[in-house]
Amino acid sequence: MIETSISIIGILFIMLNKIIFINNDDINVKIYTKKQKYFYISWLLLSICCFIPIFEETSIAKFIYSFFDKTSYLCTLLIVMICVKIIIKNIHQTKHSCKYYALFNILDSIRFKLLHAIIIVLLGSIFYAGALGFMNFDIYHLNVIYQGIMTLIFLVFLYIINYFVGILGLISIILFCFFGDYNQSILESLICPYIYFYCIIYIALYTIKYFTNTIFKLYK
What we know:
Radius of gyration: 20 Å
Helix content: over 70%
Distance between the termini: 51 Å
């Protein structure tokens, strides 16, 4: 449950950042610093609330875990990277240091793109459809060698689209080798219901936005 807990805390961090710093283009350093304090205090309190037993000794974190199990290593690493990027950006906004700006630029190059989402949805659909018995081709119970080949192909695609995401995928595999359950598929270090459903929503919103902008341009 460690991966899921980290992911929940990370998602809260990202969502609160979006809400509190929704418009900070013309904000001065003093106000920005004050908002940062509210942000970190709010995040800390909400994070604690997620692990407090609410009903029958079950917390929000355990309730989420009971539905979809733990997050994949790739999903957890992506969330952590986004959180680190937000922290570095906030430090840079207040201190305006060149070293923080350089670090932020490096982290900013780790971008989750539409093609990443499409590949994850395609592989996830095959993976879960086979595991749930909706199709005869079951990746989950394939020979370890075939799973390794599919994982390698998946990593190559991630690397081609964005090499930093590809590196995170490789780190996920390494973490699985050391801490993963031998009864699990190696693909579970990269694919999980959390990132799968996120990618579906990501594609849907991107498609809606694309068609909305296209229609708007046609009738402008």
